[in-house]
Design a protein that fits this description.
Elements: H1 2-19, H2 23-36, H3 41-48, H4 52-65, H5 87-96, H6 108-117, E1 119-120, H7 123-132, H8 136-150, E2 155-163, E3 166-177, H9 183-201, E4 209-213
Parallel strand pairs: 1-2, 3-4
Antiparallel strand pairs: 2-3
């Protein structure tokens, strides 16, 4: 009976996930579903870039009063600005609901989506890095419209870089190949992205990603 009840809950969440268009609510539902499927708090937290405590709270809310409790509004739960919808992030979250976190390979859809917006330098290294840090994927997608607002024509690159001071520490470099000829104007433009978005978003990268100019 317990197994049947759990399967019913998973199906209920699945149906809602497929029709949800709010990224905050979607993240909660995906986290709870993955937990019901036997994933650990840690693996879900790493994949969705949320805290284990948040997952536990969402699970308790769902078990207490059902799916309506995942629709609550709360400042602490918001990872993306509701005033600036991120369709790519929403689609990525939906894909995670069906992602087997026990597999180390990324879904090909994740790579294809990223390659629509970014040129991969040394693709094998990037894929390997994202396998270990999948929480970066929604952040990379989220970066794109912010960059395009100020650098509409620039080519964008992703590359894995090694910290020269700590050789064992790798980071993902998101570089903007700007065509702005004046270096000072180019730097000022990059700083606008910092002020409008990146300074707030950067903690979610867990010091695994940085933006700069080519």
């Amino acid at each position: 009976m317990e197994s049947q009840a759990k399967e019913k809950q998973i199906q209920e969440l699945d149906d809602w996930i497929n029709n949800c268009s709010d990224d905050r609510q979607l993240k909660r539902a995906v986290a709870v579903k993955l937990y019901l499927q036997g994933r650990t708090y840690r693996s879900i937290a790493e994949a969705l870039n949320v805290s284990p405590r948040s997952i536990s709270n969402w699970k308790k809310r769902y078990e207490s009063k059902g799916i309506s409790e995942l629709k609550f509004s709360g400042q602490g739960a918001a990872s993306y600005s509701p005033s600036q919808p991120r369709q790519e992030v929403i689609e990525w979250l939906k894909s995670q609901a069906h992602w087997d976190l026990s597999k180390i390979e990324l879904a090909s859809a994740d790579i294809e989506t990223l390659q629509k917006f970014y040129t991969f330098k040394e693709p094998a290294e990037i894929i390997k890095f994202l396998q270990k840090n999948p929480f970066l994927i929604p952040l990379i997608l989220e970066a794109h419209p912010h960059i395009r607002k100020h650098f509409p024509e620039s080519r964008l690159y992703l590359q894995v870089r090694i910290d020269p001071e700590i050789p064992s520490w790798k980071m993902l470099r998101l570089s903007i190949d700007t065509n702005i000829s004046d270096p000072e104007i180019a730097i000022d433009t990059l700083e606008k992205i910092d002020d409008e978005w990146w300074l707030d978003a950067q903690p979610r990268s867990q010091n695994k990603m940085f933006l700069n100019l080519n």
